[in-house]
Amino acid sequence: MTAAQNEPQSAPVMAGHLLVQCLIAQGVTHAFGVPGESYLAVLDGFHAHADQIQFVTCRQEGGAAFMADAQGRLTGRPGVCFVTRGPGATNASIGVHTAFQDSTPMVLFVGDVASDTRDREAFQEVDFASFFGPSTKGMAKRVERIDDPRRIPEYVARAFATAMNGRPGPVVLVLPEDMLVQMVQAAPMPRVEAVEAWSDPGALRRLRELLLQSERPFVIAGGGGWTVQSAQALQRFAENWKLPVGNAFRFQDTFDNFHPQYAGDVGIGINPALAARIKNSDLILAIGPRLGEMTTSGYTLLTPPKAQQRLVHIHASAEELNRIYQADLAICATMNAAARSLEVLTAPPTVPWEAWTQAVHADYEANVRPQSLPGLPADNAAGLVDMPAVIAVLQAHLPADAVLTNGAGNFASWVHRYFKHHGLVKGHKTQLAPTVGSMGYGVPAGIGAAIATGRTVFTIAGDGDFLMNGQELATAVQHGAKTIIVLLNNGMYGTIRMHQEREYPSHVSGSGLNNPDFAALARAYGYAGVRITRTAEFEKVFLEALARDQGTLIEVILDPEVITTRGTLSAITAAALKK
Length: 579
Hints:
Blueprint: H1 3-6, E1 13-14, H2 15-25, E2 30-33, H3 40-48, E3 54-57, H4 61-75, E4 79-83, H5 87-101, E5 106-112, H6 128-132, E6 142-145, H7 152-164, E7 170-176, H8 177-180, E8 183-184, H9 201-212, E9 217-221, H10 228-241, E10 245-248, E11 262-266, H11 272-280, E12 283-287, E13 310-315, E14 329-332, H12 335-343, H13 354-367, H14 387-397, E15 403-406, H15 412-418, E16 431-432, H16 442-453, E17 457-462, H17 463-469, H18 473-478, E18 484-489, H19 494-503, H20 518-525, E19 528-532, H21 538-547, E20 552-557, H22 571-578
Parallel strand pairs: 2-3, 2-4, 4-5, 5-7, 6-7, 9-10, 9-12, 10-11, 12-13, 13-14, 15-16, 15-17, 17-18, 18-20, 19-20
Antiparallel strand pairs: 1-8
């Protein structure tokens, strides 16, 4: 008899229970989803292990997928979502696409038709491999189907490894319902950890040479894979070399916004002065971002395929390097390894760009200084809510580790421009926002963050954005999560109206909204609901929201003219209206 035969064998379990055991082995504490008959055996597994893992029942699969995405961003390990076949999977696809473009680790489990009905267009059947199609233009890094229950541990471990390694992203695992009810004798595999890819020493020497040859260098930091340790190492590197650092689009918590070398966010509505600085730079160090359309202002800050500036691009995925921009130096490394390598790169006693760095930071400080509304008297007689003043209240009273979330729309520009993140350098990820531009992300992402972390969560939403996933307030109440939501109600899809005003002046079509009483709607779900129309009303109701145990929605009535008056919104509107 062999040693393996002498080892005690685990008792047979239902495959759906084994799957839950595998999640627990990977450190998963929460799984988000909408229940479906195709994976009842997994739900029974959650019931059996309720003391170790919680299934968070959501109201729509898109909201559930956004919650899983939020968990992935906050923890650096895959957020987990469960949905049923057909409509469940297609609803969840928005979260998968968001995780893909935002480089967020995530695993979506899809209950599927039984094996003996496959390929007959059975009830709600979808070809998930084709639908989620792994590719550089797809929605997932990998799509696999588990037909043999004995291989569940293998597939789950590989899914977690794939989601975390290289460029992080989503993986889809398809679960035939008949497979999940089979009895199986197998054990979960050990917890998978992400693999570190280190910078080549020769490349680091070349990077140092490029820095020493530069007069106006600029760092763009962001993308997936950052940890507290890597962000702190990045800051030490920047301090050693006295470099200005800008954060890529919606990764504003990568580098401390209060730091005297911070340059601002490099994304939609970029500060025109910052855009000019980047164009005038002679060396761009892109550490982590993909250098996509939003971070490059439509590929104008750096022009592909060969930027006018020298470019050092550091990314965890070799496939991303030289894909859009031919770099002068491409380094394949994970953010933790790259930043730790950079911080020990020996800097000279002095550098010629200290005044440049100071000037770039001065541009940032000028851009976050509130400006008066043009054309209005100083006492704001028109009654417009002063959004910079509202953001100042948030800055003054939110704890440093608060999580800020938003979806897509002009409303998000207020926090992007005026709120300062301490972020990862101080120990916490604090911004959850979709670089893919998904409407409806902020509310469920905030709820997911509150459930998973228990930290203070603030969400800013628009009237159109909120109604994409506002029903998830029911999920928050059911699971005891508290979020504070500021909903800006201007009666329109503001971003679309902005573009209409630019392209087809006075031809308003399809962008007007007839809204409900949002404060009353929030109360119906079990949140506190308050409506304000004046700036002076905000601080009191916000402090009350922080103090109460219950979640709160603060509806802010915003004048529609705010999106069309140059200077009243952030630079996104002003820049767009100038075109």
